[in-house]
User: What shape does this take?
Amino acid sequence: MTAVLEARQLGKRAGRATLLDGVGLTVAAGEVVAIIGPNGAGKSTLLRLLSGDLRPSAGEVRLKQRDIGSFAPRELAARRAMLSQHINVTFPFTVEEIVLMGAGERSLREAGPLVDAAMDEVGLSHFRERQLPTLSGGEQQRAHFARVLVQLACGEAEHGPGLLLLDEPTSSLDLRHQIDLVEAARRRAAAGTAVIAILHDLNLAIRFADRLVVLAGGRLAADGPRADVVTRERIRDIFEIDAVVHQVDGVPYVLPQSMRAAGQAELPPR
Amino acid sequence: MSVAAGIEARSPRHSAGQRAASFAIPLLLVVLLVTAIAALTVGAAGIPLSRLPAALGLAGESTSMTARDQLVLWSIRIPRIAAAVMIGGLLAAAGAIMQGLFRNPLADPALVGVSSGGALAAASAIVFTDSRFGEALRFLQTELLPLAAFAGSLATTTILYGISSRSGRTSIAIFLLAGVAITAIANAGIGLLVFIADDRQLRDITFWMLGSMSGATWTKAAVLAPVLIAGLAGCAFIARGLDLLVLGEADAFHGGVDVERLKRISIVIVSAMTGVAVSISGVIGFVGIVVPHLLRLVIGPAHRLLLPASVLSGAILMVGADTLARTIVAPAEMPIGILTAAVGAPVFLFILLRQRGLAAL
Assistant: This one.
């Protein structure tokens, strides 16, 4: 399988602080990767470096065998799509107008089928004419996911399998829509898209991804198949909590508990 | 496939914005025409509708009044209305672009000091070209004023963006407060110029403080026209980028927008539009807030339609306000800035209260 994305020795500094140091990551077409780790581990920084939004202080990111910094914004948008965490739209654009933004210069007449399919997929077809700011946080998130799916589809139609980046895509979604989103992303992967997502819910991450990448303190702490990465010891090391890890049909299932409940002294604040 | 069936059922598809576009622009053009004709007929020397065709040279029969009517129309009223059309269009479009750029409906070049920055530069140009040092440039004063005002507005907008944007996010509180501070600095500069100016310069400078169309001539209208045309062409170029910018700088970039270039172009367009308008009419506030706000409620926020519609609506508002300004206290003239502020400030407060209401949720 060909690598869609290759990151080598990635480092990012902001002033004196080191946000990310020596991170390497290769993601092949059709692969689904979840990035997990505690707050401040550098997950969002890593995703922004992989998206080409931030420039690394060290190392390089290659998208489809080409330095990501060498793409013009429009070329980049045709090869990778990204869903951010908090998007606050101030003007009264309708859901349809927002989703259509993913189609670039294409008019609604050209991109209509893609827009319709994406709105159906996130379950927002009945809100087509609603103004986005009047929707709930979760519904807005789904509208933006539909926009990103349209962007991905438009780009893949021209340039083949692309890269889909998701920054905590499920943070404001209810259970049903969390599962819907995971399945929508996996369908893209089955068609060849490389998918990378930051997720906080370990069980969702396990369900979402075949491969987990663990970041801690700006460094890569683990990278591998979910059953290898998710162990009681690693959860204790990384998240500083105790957890019961069950295996259900070879898939780990995590039940987190506080350290105190596990009969241990509370950890000092970091 | 269900998707294909969906296309059959709904094709051809138009968005709400496209539907609005089919009637908004023609409707606004008609309203502008009617307003302009009404503006032609009223004033210190009234020209009733029945005498208008002859005065415009469209009908043959000349009466004793025709010569006088023609003089009034062609040397005073028509250049003034032409200037009002273009200044209204420039200010409203500049407001709409600035709101898109700062992602906030409260952004207005006059409110945040961009107009004052232009006025300061224009006032400086007056004092400089009248001084011993600037003697050589005095014959260029008419051309120099719009350029100076553009430079002043450009500097102000750039400073404002630099202060209020940090890593892709624009703080609205900092933006408005920085605007207050910049307005204060510009006004202090204008105050200093007033202090050192002689009586004749003082009269010219005071003019910028009040805002009026009374200085409009064909020459000045000729300065406005190319800026408006170039600005409109620029609007077509930045419209889609401004739409995506509503997602924030990072997500506009993810969507394929060259955000840095978009910001630079927008800042230059806003500054040129505001600066040149200010150099002709002085500081006229709130047109840039009221017009785009009302339009968004009717035709939606998509800039491809909002920007040209703002130009037409701003023109209508300015011609109407100027006609009112020169008739309500005739034979004297009300400064037009007072009228636009009387209408605009309540609208501004209304938007502010609505935003507060949303924030409380």
User: Anything to note?
Assistant: The two ends of chain A are 41 Å apart (CA to CA). The first strand of chain A starts at residue 3 and ends at 14.
